[in-house]
Amino acid sequence: MKLSTPRWWYRREDRIAPVTRAVLTPLSWIWAAATARRLARGEPFDPGAPVICVGNLTLGGTGKTPVVREIARRLDAQVLSRGYGGALAGPVRVDPARHTAAEVGDEPLMLAQDLTVWVARDRAAGAKVAAEAGARLIVMDDGHQNPSVRKALSLVVVDGETRGDEWPFGDGRVFPAGPMREPLAVGLTRADASVVLLPADLAEPDPALLELLAGRPVLVARLAAAAPPPAGPQVGFAGVGKPWKVERALQAAGCELKDFWPFPDHAPYDEVTLKRLADRAAQFGAGLVTTEKDWARLPPAWKPRVAAWPVRAIFEDEAALDALLSRL
Question: Structure pTM?
């Protein structure tokens, strides 16, 4: 069973859910210690092609995948993914005409529409196969906490949405007491740069966030619609790390959103669930709209009935990005 991301994780004040945080804190110490031990004992493998790791410091919801897509397109690079949610261990090259999200994961299947994507539970083995198959550059989707592959460049994507008491790192606690995969200061020491990803309707990044990330280059990118949302009334749904961000983004893009259903990240969509969504849309005389990532998980018969709304990451200072990537 997949669990929804607790929204209180991203409240910067620890007065929200204080008992739950206190109970889970000892488990977070164990998680952080295990991560530190794994990183210390890792022996990075050099696949023979430079690897750019695009990772994050929190458990999902940062917008990492659009950044992966933009950098891979920019460099004509191949993508390496663990294939979360997929059954194939790999290494295997993703074929959109043959594979399903249940086999290779939703994000790899989405990216494979216009990029060469490899899926491998063993990241080192996947990087090796990709390099042997001719990859000149490899963009590794996630893996900032994985020491098995030598990284030529490490970027961490940070959610730049800071509304009210929302904060990308919550109160700084490590999973399961908070959203962090490891303590913030520890994770930043291994990063060459941070990418602050802003929603389309947020004018500027929070100065306090930029100050917190100072000490290494900080690139600002914006999550923008690659196409307008479908016309007319719509019922939206999304199973991503922070589904409430998809709802906000659709509204900001001018979508006539009548209702929105959140689901856990990578949640599969069965016939019963989809029929309920279709019935709800019928009540409003509305269509159904979701993210490209969610659309990849739909059964084939449902894909023509649901609009996939594409977004992309646009870097505000492309020259700064090119200067960073020129190290390769």
Answer: 0.89
